[in-house]
Amino acid sequence: MSSSKTDLKSICNPFGTYGSTASELSVRNAASVYGHGPGGSAYEPGFNSEASAYLPGASTPPRIIWEGEIVGYLTVGSTQPGAVDPNELLAYYVCPR
What we know:
Elements: E1 63-66, E2 69-74, E3 83-84, H1 86-92
Parallel strand pairs: 2-3
Antiparallel strand pairs: 1-2
């Protein structure tokens, strides 16, 4: 995980793999299985996905990896250990929209 605005693997890089609203691997992509984003609808593919960071209680939310180790999960409304709300993370890092 990186908060760099230039790292291609950063959640904060709007042109990167995990920060782009167009990337299939990004929680910021409304059509990705990893997120439907704030205000998403049940008609968007990621809304009902068990991999969505925005589906409370998702069984396989996106992992947060630091130096090759899983250190948490991006998920809303979860009490599981290591749960981090994706909206709070993006706000904390002051990621561009």
